[in-house]
Amino acid sequence: MVTVLRTRIVSVWEAVRPFVERERELRGEAGGGSYMSIFEELARLAAELPPEHVFDRMTQTRRRPTRSWLRG
Fold it and tell me: In this predicted structure, what is the pLDDT of residue 68?
């Protein structure tokens, strides 16, 4: 999923980040609280994926052999 939605995940995190940080302040979680921390980590991991990774994974998927038993 992260491979396909990489740029979308990162852009959504960048859009909501200020709101999450403010919510953490209001909750008393300033300095890296737990509110939305899983999504923040997902965005961090997605941002670290090199753009070539997406192309490579898609190429690998397309090269998988078809299953002849599915053709009936």
Answer: 57
What is the rounded distance in angstroms from the CA atom of residue 51 to the CA atom of residue 46? 10
Q: How large is the angle between the packed helices 51-63 and 2-27, nearest 10 degrees?
A: 140
Interacting residues of 51 by C-beta distance below 8 A, sequence separation 6+: 6
3-state secondary structure the chain: CHHHHHHHHHHHHHHHHHHHHHHHHHHCCCCCCCCCHHHHHHHHHHHHCCHHHHHHHHHHHHHCCCCHHHCC
pLDDT in tens, 4-33: 788 899 999 999 999 999 999 999 987 767
- Distance between CA atoms of residues 42 and 72, nearest Å: 41
pLDDT at 49: 86
